[in-house]
Amino acid sequence: MNAILAAVEQTSGEHGMATAFATASYVIAAALFVLSLKWLSAPSTARRGNLAGEIGMTLAILGALVQHDIISYRWIITGFVVGAAAGAPMAIWMRMTAVPQRTALSHAFGALAAALVGTAHYYLYDLHNAPPTSVVMGFLCLEVLLGGLTFTGSLMAFGKLQEILPTRPIVFKNQNVFNLSILGAAIISAVLLTIHPQWSWLFPILLVLAVTFGVLLIIPIGGADMPTVIALLNSYAGLSASMMGFVLNSKLLIIAGALDGASGFILSVIMCRAMNRSFTNVLFGAFGQVQTSAAGAGEKKAVKSAQADEVAQILGAAQNVIVIPGYGMAVAQAQHKVRELYDQLTKRGVNVKFAIHPVAGRMPGHMNVLLAEAEIPYDRLVEMDDINGEFPQCDVALVIGANDVVNPAARHDKSSPIYGMPILNADKAKTVVAIKRSMNPGFAGIDNELYTLDRTLMLFGDAKAVISATARELAGSNGH
Ligand code: NAP
After folding, report:
1. pLDDT, tens only, 338-376
2. Is the distance from CB of 417 to CB of 444 less than 8 angstroms?
């Protein structure tokens, strides 16, 4: 690489060619990042979006490597090898249901990198003879503050999701006041450092306050709200990278960080809306601490259960079936068996659609990704608002490991923790078949009256096993 650079420099006489290459690659990379986000928003173009993002990032890295005055590539290559050795196995072998915690780890390390770059940059200044300007120092402090709190916050989120740490909210008296005082102290330190960059004794205090606030921010939040928090931490990590762009004078970092920050923020807003929760409720509501509800307290109603052969008969005789996948389908990795069932039903002329709730599963788009993996046609996937009106005409609503997203209590039980959350109207279908292993509650920890309706049949068992058995029964009666 050094040899190539030397050759480039010799040809141009100066850094001209390398700078031209870097500028061109940055412009193309920025455009690709924007297109990537656009394409990622629809299942049919998501793969293209991923590819565009990857090409953009490769160009951005190449641009950075040729442009700056890098004395040695040894540490860069070492970092690359160590990072790839840690990242590749995670990407290849980590289960899809563990993606939220994997994402939390990525944010933690991205934010740590931003905080470390900011710290190194600060200590490289000759603070007495040539201190940074207030503008640069302001961005640098924000970079370190956001990077530090996102680092520890994301590690805590990882620990809760991986259940290394207690998933229940940990609360203490006057917690919000205490936490906000720590944040306030961090902001005051940042402002003072912006005005007096040479007060270097204050810099470690800013760092300690930032990382402490990251821990305090996450401990009162229940494991259940972690996916939303992760989207928010994603936003902070992006903003931190954007600030780093101002400090390093890298326009591409400013653009990429801003895109990351804005998309993470929008995603967390979408998730809050889909759960009918406010930001403050997610961040300060200690949701999941007292998971009791009127539904859980009442006397238990009897449920009707059925076997796979009976369900196969009911499905085979239907004209319109709406499948409602949820977290249980992801846990069971049942998507390929769902595809087999879909094939058997469509072969019989049954009209099968999939109803997608925005927060079904444990991360946004969880169901879309799994169904796309099983190659179920995109046009069969219908968003909640578009399909809810179709349930009264639907013969069978087949609920596969979904629970909270079909709980009618969200519509009428004001004491329920999910009251107000928009749900899929499975209870309006002529017949409901619900697949799960037991009568255990879902994520919100509450009972579901859908399972005790007169027109509901429970098909108990692991989703993969029972769907496979149902598809086999249908194949048998289809003559295969
Ligand atoms: P859910 O309410 O968590 O229910 C999942 C159900 O799947 C459970 O009742 C469980 O019952 C069943 N299950 C688990 N493993 C199974 C298996 N191997 N086979 C068959 N069934 C299995 O799931 P959901 O309806 O998808 O709702 C998602 C919840 O997550 C919502 O409360 C949402 O607010 C929350 N959330 C989602 C996101 C997101 O981005 N998607 C983010 C934050 C929060 P058994 O144990 O009896 O089998």
Report:
1. 999 999 999 999 999 999 998 898 887 889 889 988 999
2. yes
Taking the C-alpha atoms of residue 61 and residue 66, their distance in angstroms, rounded to an integer, is: 9
Nearest to residue 324, comparing CAs of 127, 460, 463?
Answer: 463
Rounded to 10 degrees, the C-alpha dihedral 426/431/434/439 comes to 90
The pTM assigned to this predicted structure is 0.78
Atom of ligand 1 minimally distant from the CA of 405? 25
Q: What count of other Cβ atoms lies within 10 Å of the Cβ of residue 51?
A: 13
- Does 3.40.50.1220 match the CATH number of domain 302-477? yes
On the 0-12 / 13-18 / 19+ scale of CB atoms within 10 A, 396 is buried
Whether the predicted pLDDT of 288 surpasses 60: no
Map out the domains of the chain as residue ranges.
Answer: 1-71, 95-284, 302-477
- Name the residue at shortest CA distance from atom 9 of ligand 1: 442
Residues noted as catalytic: 404
Q: What is the pLDDT of residues 299-349, one digit of tens each?
A: 567 889 999 999 999 999 999 999 999 999 999 999 999 999 999 999 999
The answer, yes or no, to whether any atom of ligand 1 lies below 6 A from the CB of 361, is: yes
Mean of the pLDDT values across residues 243-252? 91
Residue 228 Cβ contacting ligand 1 at under 6 Å: yes
Beta partners for 381? 354
- Quick one: CA torsion of 443, 446, 450, 451, rounded to 10 degrees? 90
Tokens of residue 163, six digits: 């259940």
DSSP 238: H
Query: Separation of 442 CA from ligand 1 center, angstroms?
Result: 5
Atom of ligand 1 nearest to the CA of 418: 32
DSSP codes of every residue in 47-96: HHHHHHHHHHHHHHHHHHHHHS--S-SHHHHHHHHHHHHHHHHHHHHS-G
Task: Report whether residue 330 contacts ligand 1, using a CB cutoff of 6 Å.
Answer: no
